[in-house]
Amino acid sequence: MAERQAAGWSRRDFFGGAALLALAVGIPATVVRYSDLDPSDEPSDRQRAMIARVSQLVIPRTDTAGAGDVGVGDFVILALAHGLEGSRAPVAADAMPNLASYQRRDGSLRHLDWLDTQLDQRAAGDFQKADTGRRVTALQTLDREAFAEGVRLHPWRTIKGLILTGYYTSEIGGSKELNYELVPGRWDPDLPLKATDHAWSSDWTAVDFG
Fold first, then answer.
1. What is the dihedral of CA 57, 58, 61, 62, to 10 degrees?
2. pTM for this one?
3. Is residue 39 pLDDT above 70, yes or no?
4. Residue ranges per domain, the chain?
């Protein structure tokens, strides 16, 4: 389990993630309170760096900022702590190999601890010290396992879903990466579509994430 570092998580870090979390669940940011978090859910510096890098690999920088650039990693940390996507639901210890060591007393999973270990294993060393190629390969391997035929529940599915949610509810993701129309006009049922066209932020779930 990752060591909890004394430096902790600053309030500035927290409120950056809280703003995205509030957008995702449709509540004021002030409702997402720092004091509501279990101290054991406070991320270590290593975990914050890890989930930021993973977020950036899932949605890298192109002509717009990537997921890591816009603070999606901190959103994921908060979202997991608050149970989005069922992340605080009890998980059967035998659902996957070696899950028991990452479970809380209530049976829910410490996703960041689990992910850190899984990525290190697939990178054959420290994922965060690996070069970009090894990181990509390690994450692709985990992704294939999570979305393999017959697999219904997998921790990586939860984490990846939160990365996508955090990014596409951010200002960059919702209005720059996707097309955004503040005041929609008439309804056009059939419009020409080019391969380079961006999806609309009102229907970002229709995007093919690959």
1. 130
2. 0.73
3. yes
4. 45-173
